Amino acid sequence: MPNDGGQLTNEEIAEQFQGYGREDFLTSEAPYDLLVTALSAVNDDFTRERITNVVREMAKKAGCPKAAFNAMLKAATPKKNEMPDEMDSGGFTGIENLLDGKKPTYGYYSCSDGGIYLYDMLNGQMLTVCSHPVFPTRRYENIETGSEMLDVSFKRDGLWKTKTQIERKTVAQARQIVNLSEFGISVTSENAREMVNYMSAIDDMNREIIPRTETISRLGWVEGRGFSPYIEGVNYDNVGKFADTYKAVHEQGDYEKWLEVVREIRATDDFKPARIVLAASVASVILKWTCNQPFIVHLWSPTSGSGKTIAVMIAASVWADPALGKFVKSMNSTMVANEQMAAFCNNLPLCMDELQTIEKNKDFDDIIYMLCEGTGKTRSSKNLGIREQATWLNVTITNGEMPINRDSRGGAINRVVSVEASGNLIPRKERMREIAEIIRENYGFAGKKIVDAIAADESWKEKIKGTYDNIVNELVKTATGKQANYGAAILTGDWLLDALIMHDGQRLTVEDVNKYLATPEMVDMNLRAKDWLTDFVASCAANFRRDGDSEDEEFPRQIYGKIDKDGSVYILPNILKREMINNKFDYQSFLKWTFERGFLHSFHSESQKHWGVATSIPGVAHRTRALHFLAKTFKPLDEQSGMEVLEEEEIPW
Questions:
Q1: Which residues lie closer than 8 Å to 601 by C-beta, 6 or more apart?
Q2: Rounded to whole angstroms, how far apart are CA atoms 331 and 358?
Q3: 8 A C-beta contact, residue 53 and residue 69
Q4: Which of 128, 177, 553, 592 is 20 to 30 Å from 33 by CA-CA measure?
Q5: Which of 45-59, 145-159, 278-292, 439-453 has the least mean pLDDT?
């Protein structure tokens, strides 16, 4: 039968099979081989079915049952896993250069520079998979998660190009593989399924020869492997997200020049705030053997040009390129971005410049709690599963022109070591530009030496633990538990820096750090609320009626309460509650705290669930409930200026 069987009439088709009888259709391969050849030359299903029906009817008239004919035709049709003997694949020229000199296997695919084809063994025809060469040329396996990515190379215009680190799911799903068209690969919704099958088959067949690279998606300690990014043969696996920051962690320039600058700063007591920040940078990588809690070190000074930014750069230079935008980041980022950056740094310090870029103190409080939590929020993935939760254990180093704890909540204060700098932080103001330039050009040596030493000698971990325990026992006598832990971690970092790098004996003392640590009184929110309340009454004295005011006298301001003749103060509950909430204090907790200490003369009814005593306030038409704070908390200054708070030591609160 001629190869243009698709153009033959039914009569012409019947003529080709006229010589076959019952025995031929029941016992011979000849009529079926002829039919299979005819069908393989046809491009559409309708014509194939027409030819098959004509021959089936002829076999039936010759005495061959329909079932027998169908079974014989099926047996004669090539199976899906069979390939014609004449099928051959010349392969892609130049592919060996991308596979370390190895020659790949193509299996059932016909691959050449002219494209990728697959023989359709059921229908006996060639299918176009892709009009040009495409091949997976490298596998990346994350050493923590086991997830894989691929390099996909393709040849267009006679040149091989590579799209690196593509998620495996991209080439495993027809609806996602079409995204490769963005890079110049000829894949559409029409050939997407065949491309998925091809990539899967080629990857399976050539798994042993496709080069494999181990990867990591973060910095820091990796159990059993060492410290990223210093693990030999392990690369970063998330191009475009934190790749620049990952690349910033390396050695650059002259180690001796870096040492000279740092030794100059350590040689005098004038620069202890900068030395504390430097020690905190080292402390970040040993937290798992010290306090085991993330915390923040905040360097601040109201004086512009004092060297705060350079001090943070020196801390960053222990590990990486300290230029702003490289390893040192801006505070002006979203909460999610800060969380992701903390998880990426993991054990390395998170260095952030310029606190004042955060406009609202509340926003910074939220950032403090998030960074010191050490774990990100639980989030769902696109397929409604749960994403892997981000974790980190490091020190965040910040700077600014104001302290964090000015208006922060007690919990936020307790998570921050706030270091105030007076004067310059860097030797001689005229040398700041020179020192900054040296640090920008010479960095990254000390950090690698420190983690290499710890990884090579397990005894360092025990020395770190012992040093930390001794220091924390001293600090806990005056600071809160958390603050003592943080201070001890900083001092242990300073000890380690001297023991492994500096060898100059210029170590910070307990007294050097202790004066910057928060005391229990500083973080007790009720004590802070007490201070706020005394200021509130003094500053709003004009809103309080006084003994002797006429009931009918018109009062030009909103009434907050009254000041009694004995100096005690009555405050309307709704006023106090509103103001305390606005200033981030717990209203109920504060009332209970003052009541227990005998300075709130109120009746608290468990059944009625409210505080207060009944009293009359001039200008208020009826008796009302008010909170009565006793006279030993406040005293009158004079009739004109209202109330003044007693000196702190005179207040038994």
A1: 568, 613, 628, 629, 630
A2: 7
A3: no
A4: 128
A5: 45-59
Neighbour-count burial for 153-178, b at 16+ CB within 10 Å, e otherwise: bbbeeeebeebebbebebbeeeeebb
Query: For the whole model, what pTM was predicted?
Result: 0.71
Gap between the Cα atoms of 235 and 165, Å rounded:
11
Say how far apart CA 617 and CA 544 lie, in whole Å: 9
381: helix, strand or coil: coil
- Within 10 angstroms of residue 541's Cβ, the number of other Cβ atoms is 20
Contact 349, 497 (CB under 8 A): no
Whether 526 has a pLDDT exceeding 50, the answer reads: yes
Strands 125-130 and 134-142: unpaired
Find the distance separating the first CA and the last CA of the chain, reported in whole Å.
109
Cα-Cα-Cα-Cα dihedral of 64, 70, 73, 77, to 10°? 180
The answer to whether the CB of 296 falls within 8 A of the CB of 358 is no
Q: Which of 5-19, 52-66, 72-86, 232-246 has the lowest mean pLDDT?
A: 72-86
Helices (H) and strands (E) in the chain, counts: 24, 22
Characterize the bridge pairing of strands 115-120 and 125-130: antiparallel
- Could you give the count of Cα atoms lying within 13 Å of 96 in the half-sphere of its Cβ? 5
Q: Give the amino acid at 207.
A: R
408's tokens: 């922060």
CA dist., res. 48 & res. 33, Å (int):
14
User: What is the crossing angle of helices 255-266 and 272-283, to 10°?
Assistant: 130
Q: With beta carbons less than 8 A apart as the criterion, state whether 491 and 472 touch.
A: no
* Identity of residue 190: E
Distance (Å, rounded) from C-alpha 98 to C-alpha 439? 40
Q: CA angle at residue 362 from 360 to 363, to 5 degrees?
A: 70
Mean pLDDT of 587-612: 76
231, 244, 232, 237: which is closest to 218 by C-alpha? 237
